[in-house]
User: Fold these one by one.
Assistant:
Number 1:
Amino acid sequence: MLSGFLEKQRFKIAKSFLSGKVLDVGCRQGGLRHYLADSSKYVGIDVLQQPADDFSFFRRSALNNLSDLGKFDSIALLAVIEHVSDCNSLLLNLYACLNKKGVLVVTTPSKAGNALHHYLAKLGLTSAHDAQDHKNIFSIDDLVSIIESAGFDVVKSRQFLFGGNQLVVGVKH
């Protein structure tokens, strides 16, 4: 299946922006931690997955208060925001979890990438469940706008994987 390949591409594009204490929202099996510097402290949360490996994991939603986890230097939101109905609440909650000058890294499919994902899911090449669970598909401009409206300064935005995915990096004031 192509899902594993796509996940690794998201990790590779995000890793250069992530450092220090890192919160991985929607961590699945915690694969991102293998791409981070050894000096990083990795914490993963997910509402669906129970990881097989031993790392700091909490089964919970990022829509809920996360203050008991402490503050973070970086937050990864990789292929997650499209599955969330209330993106504004999610982003405001994550903003509160970041240290000053903390970094939020968001990836999500583009509109064309989403259409391709649905087609590939019908062929059994990507996850049909994930494709069907998409609640929001954003243009890059819309994604930048909602991240800025949550208080972040957007320092990078671009498409990758031939325009099928998009990356936005925001910094907390």
Number 2:
Amino acid sequence: MSSADPPGSPSDPPASSADATRERAPDAVPEASTPFVRLGGEPGVRALVDRFYDLMDLEPAYAGIRRLHPSTLEGSRDKLFWFLCGWLGGPSHYVDRFGHPRLRARHLPYAIGIAERDQWMACMIEALREEAVEASLAKRLAEALFGTADWMRNR
């Protein structure tokens, strides 16, 4: 799995046949469902993104990354929402609007070092926790997002 692939992406190894035949509780989430579905679809992704940017806007611990954003966060909220929907296995809103994400190129104008990466990750992990994302999914998302966040570093 590359650092930009979400958990459950096609690059993950297939589940064993034992996994496929194991009985599940009626309300259990199927193993084959995407992270997008497991987060609750568009409403769940929007709630996560909104909490992420609310925390960034309110918490002094995230002031460093907040300074890298425009004075209003509406455009940033929309772009992260559109990107995450597709990255998590849902609709490709971002690609439909802007083409390939080219994340590293789009982030080059901003001075992103270890401190900014770590603030971004801490803010996202807090948003995942506050939005009560199931622990195993939150862990896999944080691991995948860390690889992407680390790739954005340019200083």
